[in-house]
Amino acid sequence: MKTKYARFLVPLIFMAADYTAIVAAENLALWLRNWNVVYRIPSAYIYIWVPLIFFVFLARSRIYTKMQPLLDSVRQVFSAVIYGVVSCIVLLFLFKESIALSRLYAILFAIFRNGSVWIDLMYLVKTVKAVFFRKGAY
């Protein structure tokens, strides 16, 4: 593929992978949390509000638009994820779900989200470089 398409496709690929990682991390944390007591979270929170919050913080750190060294990307993604997790906990309180707010769920979600972001970032950076920026691609 030509690099002129990469300018538009690479951010979309990263955003789609991040959305999948966010939803998967949240569902995994909720599934592990529900092993003894059922804890319900509205679907709008899982599929709309949480990804939206994370995308705001990830966009603020310019992850999707600025190519930078991997260590800097990891550092900025980590801080964006921490701010996102704190904001999601605040959002649970605003949605009146604070009565059932589980510390175990919040901790599991933070761990799974950080892990999924790092795995997602490492895999996608290698894949995107191999597909879009290999020799002879232009």
Report what the structure shows:
The chain has helices spanning 3-33, 43-60, 70-94, 103-132. It has 138 residues and is mostly helical. The mean pLDDT is 77.
List the helices and strands and how they pair.
Layout: H1 3-33, H2 43-60, H3 70-94, H4 103-132
Helix pairs in contact: 1-2, 1-4, 2-3, 3-4
Short characterization:
By secondary structure, the chain is mainly alpha-helical.
Helix content: over 70%
Mass-distribution shape = elongated
If you compute it from the alpha carbons, what radius of gyration comes out, rounded to the nearest whole angstrom?
17 Å
* Distance separating the two termini: 7 Å
Considering the chains and any ligands shown, give keywords for the structure.
single chain, 138 residues, mainly alpha, 4 helices, 75% helix, elongated
